[in-house]
């Protein structure tokens, strides 16, 4: 098991390093001057030069990349005479200097994702901490809805194999898998949030926390979660339904199921006690992957519904070319995706010893 975990962590580190490298060079070749973005309308040539020197924007791109890599790495190197060590002393980095070699210090620190260009003086880490919980709540709610509806539709479709009910469910599933999230978000917001607002009580846009009309206090508006959660869950509902149907049909043709039928067991007992457990394996595999994907796929859904999550923050950062926020958010999503996959692999290894080899 230790070898498996070490193997997974090693490849996860390589994957995260690749993501970091790609997003840095991808977004840093975009047109625009980061120093001007940070200063806004208060810019002048002297201030621009100060900002460029302070953040290393006046250095070659490869040097900037090494600085960024040093910032986000939990183990970093700092020159005792350089500005970055001064920033470390001034709590730019939260961590501990382990030891010094010649004129360099090696530090163990919290990854530093820098400061937002447009939200002056606000660390990217704080922005992620404020928005990530909303995205996690949205993804969790969506995956729960997808599991309940997907499994239910899949079981009904398998039990009604070849009938008109089965054909309708298959048609809906195929349509759900091919429907883009941004289109279904606009469609559902218009129908249930605008046309049927009097009956549903739902709004076209809204986040988890809202402020009352007088601006005195904020409250949780859970009803705003309904539409974005269902829209985000449409595609996994279709996938889970198909997987459940196909797996259950395969299990129902096994010899032990025919034996159970010959003993006179009811259809409910056969499905619940015998068939369902073995048919759930491919669905469980898909659930873990889809939950991780939802964290990344919530971008357009959050933006359209006005849900203040990490996805909406990414879109806003793209519109304003707020590079630290974009890169920090993408790294966070990638890290979450990798960690979920590692946890799932470890669980599979515990359940199935063959995976260890």
Commentary on this structure:
It contains 17 helices and 5 strands. The chain is mainly α and 357 residues long. The protein has 2 domains: 21-109, no CATH class; 124-356, Orthogonal Bundle (MetI-like fold). The protein starts with a helix and ends in a 6-residue tail after the last helix. The relative contact order is 0.13. The model is unreliable at 84-91 (pLDDT under 50).
Q: How is this fold's topology laid out?
A:
Blueprint: H1 2-28, H2 34-39, H3 45-55, H4 61-72, E1 75-79, H5 83-89, E2 95-101, E3 104-109, H6 124-159, H7 164-178, H8 181-195, H9 197-200, E4 209-211, E5 218-220, H10 226-232, H11 234-252, H12 255-262, H13 267-279, H14 281-297, H15 299-305, H16 310-320, H17 323-351
Antiparallel strand pairs: 1-3, 2-3, 4-5
Helix pairs in contact: 1-4, 1-17, 6-7, 6-10, 6-11, 6-14, 6-17, 7-11, 8-10, 8-15, 11-13, 11-14, 14-17, 15-16, 16-17
Strands of the widest sheet, in order across it, are 1-3-2
Q: Give the ordered list of helices and strands.
A: HHHHEHEEHHHHEEHHHHHHHH
Structural category is: mainly alpha
Tell me the domain tally: 2
CATH topology of the largest domain: MetI-like fold
N-to-C CA distance? 10 Å
For the secondary structure, the number of strands is 5
- The low-pLDDT segments are 84-91
Shape type: globular
User: What portion of residues belong to β-strands?
Assistant: 5-15%
Instruction: Describe the main β-sheet briefly.
Output: 3 strands, antiparallel
Q: What is the CATH architecture term of the largest domain?
A: Orthogonal Bundle
